[in-house]
Amino acid sequence: xxxxxxxxxxxxxxxxxxxxxxxxxxxxxKVDSPADFKPEKGSGxxxxxxxxxGFAAGARVNSTATEQVVISAPSxxxxxxxxxVRVEWQKPEAEIIAIxxxxxxxxxxxxxxxxxxxxxxxxxxxxxxxxxxxVKVTAGRSSIDQIFDMRMWGGDGGPFRVTPDGLANCSHLxxxxxxxxxxxxxxxxxxxxxxxxxxxxxxxxxPWKTWTPxxxxxxxxxxxxxxxxxxxxxxGTAGTYIGKxxxxxxxxxxxxxxxxxxxxxxxTGQISVDLPLPCANSMPDTxxxxxxFISTQNGADQDLDFMLEVLIKSSWRRGVLYTPVSGAxxxxxxxIMGFGNEGIPQLASGYPVGSVYTMHLSYPVEDV
Length: 368
Hints:
The protein folds into two domains: 15-164, Triple-stranded beta-helix, CATH 2.60.520; 209-364, Adenovirus Type 5 Fiber Protein (Receptor Binding Domain). The protein is 3% helix and 41% strand. The protein contains two helices and 28 strands. The chain has helices at 15-21, 164-168, and strands at residues 29-31, 39-41, 46-49, 52-56, 59-63, 67-70, 78-88, 95-100, 109-110, 120-123, 127-138, 146-149, 152-154, 160-162, 180-182, 189-192, 198-200, 209-210, 215-217, 231-232, 240-248, 251-259, 271-274, 285-294, 304-313, 318-326, 329-334, 356-364. The protein is elongated and about 90 Å long.
């Protein structure tokens, strides 16, 4: 079959053909600067759109005066509307209009055919609606409830710039797979991957989250996966749990600190720690590293440091703690309580309860 090539000998390039050609060169829609086409709440049920210039799917758009877009209030409830610059290739002028959505979202997108008046059209060379803002209006109110600035700009040599509103609502942006967007000063960054999912890149857009890394003992039983079984340990006076994590490119990065005090009780048997997210099904098992500091407060004859490993298997919601059998024998076994050589790790005296447990969790998770 023939493969077409625009811009070669004996081809004619008109407005529609040019719109098709430039789709792979830059963003479908972007403004020249953060000041161009800036949408803000106007008086009453109006959106004020500043003058400016931009590029919309192959058409250069310019406005020399501030535009006022009137929003009609719904008869009941609330509604989400889209404020767009509408470009039609059969008309010499563009217009800024409001397209009504519904109580849960803005209008749906049309990407083929001649276009639909009451939808958001993304048909370069025919009809294109460049999204400026998303607004929420409520029946009976005299002003707009919310307005989200959805413009893009920049992108020369790096990600396109967006507002925090645009980043938070990036699913509404008209972007190709592989696009990266960021807020000013690179504070927040997202990437649209080949599966159509926007993912956080390792910046403040992916802040550290917290969870409680509760430790549990199992007596004569064993942890079998899920969230069933086990008894929560007692950390004792002034005992603390600290857990922080984030997910970057499908890998969980987490840090755990657990301190114990007088009156602690770790029971008997295997010991686990609660995880913030289950391990991905694609990974049969994985190990994360940690450390136990055992002090004389629990009867040990001296302060001791032991390495710690955390076994995490596919779909597990808890990790199982392993330590060396003793200071002289590095074979790993489940960390269990017992006096002297009956515990793991074995001690000369006392119980192997850590005064401080630290762990660095690293394992794959499903998309979140």
